[in-house]
Amino acid sequence: MIVDHIKNWRGYCFGTAWENAFGFLETLDPEIEEGEFPIDGETVFARVMSYSTKNETDSDAVLEAHRKYVDIQMALRESERIACYPLHGLDPKGPYDEVKDVQFFKYKAVADLQLSVFPGTFVCLLPQDAHMPQLRTGPEATKVKKVVVKISREALTI
To answer: Structure pTM?
Structure first.
């Protein structure tokens, strides 16, 4: 997992797919329409979405992990908290969905690692980083607009 300010993305050398992802992120205006945006075919693409934040115990809060894609998540408007869990300590809710590249896990307790993401900061979540996004950063729910860039794990160079 990487947490940083977008102006520092060049400090991580992960190849062309990484550069393409941040080339897209640097151009985003918070007024961008919601939807899916191709960046480099199925290797790199983005989803822009809005939703109200919630608590970990809300029935629609999801704890998830991905195998094929790395997530780069960045708030465009307002803020959200992402609870992060080590994958090896979780109980699956069901099987891995290869088509959607997601597996959901049972929520047991508050995560030891909590990240607050504000406009201008990004979180890069790797396959071993199970995460519960869309959480409140304060006592009241807010309407967050964010982007998630998906990069094929195989396209990253180290």
So the answer is: 0.94
Q: Where are the domains of the chain?
A: 2-155
The pLDDT tens digits for 21-79 are 999 999 999 999 999 999 999 999 999 999 999 999 998 999 999 999 999 999 999 99
With 0-12 / 13-18 / 19 or more C-beta atoms within 10 angstroms meaning exposed / middle / buried, residue 121 is middle
Its sign, for the CA torsion 69, 72, 73, 77, is negative
Sole residue written with tokens 């961008």: 32
Reported as type and span, the H/E element at residue 25 is: helix 16-27
pLDDT (tens digit, 9 = 90+) per residue, 67-95? 999 999 999 999 999 999 999 889 999 99
Q: Residue type at 117?
A: V
Structure tokens that stand for 21 in this block:
């992802």
CATH code of the domain occupying 2-155: 2.60.120.370
